[in-house]
Amino acid sequence: MAIKGSLKEASLPDVLQLLSMGKKSGCLGLSFHDSFGSIYFDSGRICHAAIVNRPLDTENAVYTLFTWTSGTFNFEPGVEPEEGAERVSVDPQSLLLEGARRVDEWSLIEKKIPSFDVVFSIDRPRLTRNRDNLSPEQEALLPLLDGHRDINGLIRDSGLGEFEVGKALYGLLNASFLLPVGRKRTTPTLPRNASPLERRELASALYRAGMHDEAQREFRALVEEAADPVASFHLGLIALRRKEWASAVNAFMTSAPNAPSKTALLHNLALAYEQLGQLEKAKLVVDRAITAGGGAEPLTQLQSAIISARLGDLQSAKVALSEARSLWSSSQPPPVWFHYAAQVAAMTDDPDREILLLAAAAETHPDSPVLLNNLAAGYLKRGEYAHARDAAEKGITVAPELPQLRRNLSAALEGIAREQKNAAHPTNRS
To answer: Taking 90 as the threshold, does the pLDDT of residue 326 lie above it?
Structure first.
């Protein structure tokens, strides 16, 4: 389930705590003006973080992102860092105190440095007379304060983080060692001669931030200029999100010869074929995904089960559902697994298993109105009207707009009324 919103309404520390407590795995994409960042989670712990075009390690990237008090965030479950990216395992709680301190200091720094396009030079006569107490970060910046680099350039060329550069400049400004020269004209996020890798990083960050129109524009340019297979793959993902199934198939097929991850490509291609109703093709592709290594991926096994069920191969569906369940060893399966597992149980005339699965689903995912509705319907089929009423009422508190829940609640109440009437007048039973 994706989570998105505004950093003005939900601060980054609040979002991190939510994802940590929920033991979520996936990518939190953030956008702030023309900057884009990502924080990746593995079972509630931060495993990687980065900001586009900023050479920061994971912890410093997170600390920098704490200073983004506006902009947007978008969490996508199941998304992992790119191959070769730095991997760590950090409890978000351990970063909150230092992050809060930096945010407080940053609010002071911003009053002196309102924009990163400001250019400074050094007042060398004053510096010469009072150089004794400079910090190592300030010493590192002195050779770079040449009247030409803006603050973005200082961050890039010094190898220091935003916070360290900002704090060092704040001290130099307070000591009157710096002279403002002016501002650099705002430049595009990437220069015209940016490499395909830099452009791909920007496009991927736009995608993770939920800015799919902008990401699509950048990925299309990469495909046209460099025939980039990663860009083609992401165009397919965007098409899937927009339910443009044929476009998704075309994009994935274009990416196929040089795709970096055959398993992910085949998984998503099978999904597109399934949505087009081309189930035989979908089955062939998902079987190839499993053979290529996707057998260890629970979502690929689940997809195989769904396609098999739609083809009427219920035995294969049961096997794939069991395989998928075993692979969710450290967490509960998502709602969709329970939905199809119960559906296959019903299709194989196993109503007891169906109701057990739906009851477990409602307990595991109490905020899923679809599962609560299915549970209510399952109890109605068994004539257990009180249980059906309870499930429907819980569903209505979550999603009062769903008419199916109200219909099932009405049917449950009618069933209860009949039972009460028959209990009061036993001879009237029919």
So the answer is: yes
Cα 63 to Cα 78: distance, rounded to the nearest angstrom: 24
SS3 37: strand
CA-closest candidate to residue 272, choices 311, 297, 238, 223: 238
Tokens 């191969």 identify what position?
313
Domain-embedded: residue 123 = yes
Segment (H or E) for 206: helix 196-208
DSSP string, 272-288: HHHHTT-HHHHHHHHHH
Could you tell me if 412 and 392 are in contact, meaning their C-beta atoms sit under 8 angstroms apart? yes
**Residue span of the structural domain in which 21 resides:** 3-107
Any domain includes 227:
no
How many CB atoms are closer than 10 A to CB 315? 10
The identity of residue 382, as a single letter, is R
Number of H helices, E strands in the chain: 20, 8
Whether 131 shows a pLDDT value over 80: the answer reads no
CB 239 within 8 A of CB 248: yes
283 within domain boundaries: no
CATH number reported for the structural domain that contains residue 128 in this entry:
1.10.10.10
* Same domain membership, residue 29 and residue 72: yes
> What pLDDT, on the 0 to 100 scale, is given for residue 152?
80
Angle at 395 between CA 394 and CA 401, to 5 degrees: 135
- The domain boundary, picked from 183, 211, 227, lies at 183
pLDDT digits over 162-206, tens only? 788 889 999 899 888 898 888 765 434 455 566 777 788 888 888
Residue 430 has pLDDT above 60, yes or no: no
The region of weakest confidence among 28-37, 43-52, 278-287 is: 28-37
The answer to whether the pTM exceeds 0.85 is: no
φ/ψ region of 173 (left if φ > 0, alpha if ψ in -120 to 50, else beta) reads: alpha
pLDDT of residue 360: 94
Mean per-residue pLDDT over the chain, rounded: 88
Q: Are residues 170 and 137 in the same domain?
A: yes
